Every structure is written in C-alpha cells, then in structure tokens.
Amino acid sequence: MSDASLNTAAPRTDEAGFGDFFALLKPRVMTLVVFTALVGLLAAPVSVHPVVGFAAILFIAVGGGASGALNMWWDADIDRVMKRTRNRPIPAGKVTGDEAFAFGMTLAGFAVVMLALATNFVAAALLAFTIFFYVVIYSMWLKRWTPQNIVIGGAAGAFPPMIGWAAATGTVSVESVLMFALIFMWTPPHFWALALFMRSDYHEAGVPMLTVTHGRRATRVHILVYTVLLAALAVGTGFTAVGGPVYLAVAVVLNALFLLGALRIWRRDETIAEADDYRTEKKFFRLSLYYLFAHFGAIALEATLAPMGLGGW
User: What is the pLDDT of residues 279-291, one digit of tens each?
Assistant: First the structure.
C-alpha cells in the first residue's frame, strides 16, 4: 500500500466546508472534461433530447470530479511537497484522506449508475473505465513508476468526448476515436512544457517526470516530436466527418503557432531559459490551453452548422 493511503495530510484545522469538497473535484480540469464531452455529444450524428443531454454531461462531470477527489486522496503525500499542490484540501488539513476517499467513491458510483440510467450502458462503462484508468492505472501505477506516465496516462483525459459520443449513439466510432486521439497527443507536450519550468517540484516529490529522468534537453526534443505528430493528426482530422472548412482553418493556424512554439522550445539553451524565467516555455503552455479549447470549439461549430448545410464537407 502506498504511503499516500496512510493519510499524510496536515492536521485537521477545522470542519470542511462546501468549497473544500468542491476543490477536491479539480474544477479547472472538470471544465475541460465537461467541454470536450459536450462536443462529443454535439458532434454525434444522433439527435439527443436536451434533458437527456444535460443529464449526460452532468453525470460525466460528476465522474470526472470523482476521479479528481480519488487522485488527491492517493497523492496527498506528494501534494504536500510540491509548491503547485501543497494548498490542496488534504495537505492543507481541510479535508482528511478518509473523507476524500469516501467522497470520491460515492460520486464515482453515483455518476456511473446514473449515466447508465440516463443514456446507455456503453457510455456508463466508458465512464467507469475512465475513472479506473485515472485513479488506478495513472495515479497509483504510472505516475510514480515511469517517465511515460503522462504519455500513457493521458488517455484518462482523452475519454470524455468518446463518452459524450457514446451517450448519444450508444457506440464507439472512428470519429470519437479521432477526438480521443487529439487530446491524447496534445497531453504530453502540454504537461512537458509545464514540467520544464516546474522541474524542481517533480524532483522533490520523487515523480519520474521526463525532465527528472532524462533531463530538460531530452524533454525539449520530445515536445517537438509530439507536436509534429499532433499537428499532422489535428490538420488531418479537418478532412473527416467531424471536421470541415471552419475546423480546418482553425487547425492550420493554431498548429502553425504550436509548431513554432515547440521549435523555439527545442532551440532553447537552459542557461537562457533560466535567465528569462522560462518565458518561452510558459508561453507555449498557455497556448496549449487555448489550443485544445479552440479545436473542440471548432468541432462543435461544425456540428452546429451541419444541419443548416453550412458545416462539414
């Protein structure tokens, strides 16, 4: 059993409030989960009743929040060490590890059962597997074991559009896999850019991020390689059923900017990077946030325009 399971949080300071439990859900991450799941639902070639659609997105969001709570329960020990996470509810002593575990498990069970009842068992099974993958495969195994943690573990964050699509259609298709692949390939350069200017956090916490195990030079090369592959995938998706002229225009512009940013990171000397406080890396990281929202926003727009004969090819 991991040290995290021994509840290594700071001493309890007072009664946990609503805000403390809400923070366990990782609301920023949940925003991405909700948005991409909604796009998967909208892009599906099946009309969904608004009430059913709302219920589906709500339960997917609850399932994503449950994953966040269980991740914080397991990672409480390393969260205390890292500057970026030391103020989370458990290490800050606002919520106990047992409370976070019970909260996460309850939400997970509720979300899966309710999604099955509201939509179908395919969507519910995908949600259950996503929670399992994020908590067990990524958090408990990959994160502390291999520098490929983000590469493989990124699948957990890539499932929401597939779940949204399945909630509407009851199936998994090439289109939903393409949306999955877009997030899957985006995740490594996004997190490795963060790791470049947060390397000391991962080193002190003993997390084998690529910057720790292979160094920053190797990380810069990996960012460039994955960005090239991502750009090919993203632009290519523009010629599929979920793409169209609007999406393609967005993809071409954003991937040109993303490739330029990755190239600049690859060319960087570590001395220069430290001198300007990793300005280029931070700029690339911020761009990566807009990158994903813009691509999925374009997919949603294509789906909205399609019934009017204006979207798609």
Answer: 999 999 999 999 9
